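Retro notes
What went well: the complex prediction finally ran end to end.
Inputs used:
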Amino acid sequence: MSQDVLVVAEHGQGKFDDITFEMLGAGKALAAQTGGACVVALIGGSDLASQLGAADKVVTVDGEGLENFNPESHSAALAAIVESTSPRVVMIGYTSMGMDLASALSVKADMALAASCLEVQAGDTVTAVSQLYGGKLNVKTDLGAGPCVVSMLAGSSPADAGKGDGAPATETVAAPATDGKVRFVRLIEPEAGDVDITAQDILVAIGRGIGTKDDIEVAEELAEELDAAIAASRPIVDSGWLPKNRQVGKSGVKVTPKVYIALGISGAPEHIEGMKGAATIIAINTDKNAPIFNVAHYGMVEDLFDVCEELTEELQDR
Amino acid sequence: MNTVVLLKRVPDLVEDLEVDSSGTALDSEHLKLTLNEFDDHALEQALLLKEGGGGEVTAVALDSEDVDKMLFTALAKGADRALKITGTGAVNGTSELAEVFAQALGSVNYDLVLTGVQASDDIDGQLAPTVAAKLSVPCIEVITGVEAGDGSVTVHKEYAGGVLAEFEMTLPGVLGIQAAAQSPRYAPVSKVRQIQDSATLDEVAGAGGDNGKFSIVVMTPPETGEGAQMLESVEELIAVLDSKGVI
């Protein structure tokens, strides 16, 4: 085992996702603690390597079948890079792609794993802080001396620290053969909806606390008075109550309105990832311990229906 | 196509979570458990596949408090068989749980294994890819659509921003379900009671557990920093909106 930190780059449609630079920044800080190098694993997209100037080294696997993410072939490619570089810590995004890679690597390479991580430290052992239980508890784990895998929450480190204009050495590892049991077919872009919630000044966002589909009307009336658009957390969209283009968060969109009013949203990390960039966040929730109050600028521990109705009436009277 | 659904009970996040005096575990006295919501979607997706193309659905869960009711509810919703894994005691994390499930699946005839994409207590990774790696079968996480084919499934995997990737996966294999094609169905209490009187749960002795490779140092509520400025009335809320220039 080396003392290196291996950061698994994530990219799609010809560009890196922010998480790549966030992890590269965090990986450099961790490598300073281990005394090793910060190495990037770049699977497919080897033409993007020049953007990884902050890395000490880039190891690529490329070839047919790696143009688009494929859980099977990318897992096999990552295993080959890990075998070749023998890192102490492998950093993978806690993302849709990363979920396919991290657990598989952990089992196949017999490495400890901490998921949903906010931070990682290395001394004699590697410790990680995971954000769990819907954001209600942080759990610090000891992963032993290593090697180990950590999957990092998006937004847990600034992306700027992972950007640089160096020219890291590049190494290529041959693409391993796979059984071809998972085959990429195509990408499907979301249908453009009636409203682009990323372009709104004010969003009234509803979560599970709204209760039933019919009750969305209460939030819609408030939104109308505020000249705002309606957004939602994942459970609302999964229930089919609002279209996908209204979903804020990890599997929805990131929004940065002037004002974000969160109604009955508990504030799971997946949701907060999508809205913490709002200039002003106002949260209304009956649970005073809801994690949403940790990111909100203003909060009210009240029934959302009472607040909505009173606020709508007051605005109508103005 | 025969589908197995792995069901897990997790702390109910609607309740307050308390850490016990050791600082490294939840206080079980005040803990209320509930079915992982994504597992409920996995069960729903399995039932939809059965209704669309036949086959059997087997719900599998580890023995724990109230697990019988959860499994009878799965039967009431339309699962053909429920399998309870007994005698394992407490299981430490996803890797150990996946080992127990993987061992138990040795006695089950399946084409497809479905489970929730994640759970709120996934300290050491997600169940679907961990079980798949232990079974040496393919897996895709974050699935929002499944169509059965001949010896394979065609699925939609969700990326950020609502982009979907379509894949074909040769069976047997595992999928981590984000959302079923429709909201999970509801089983009326009367029907669950009726099933409880007429059906039985199959049991298999649990084996496995791989002494998780991590240890918990401490569990703490997140630091809140300044926290939100709490407002006491709608008048105060209006004043905030006014100060932000949006009304």
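What we learned: Chain A has a mean pLDDT of 95.
What to try next: split runs per interface for comparison.
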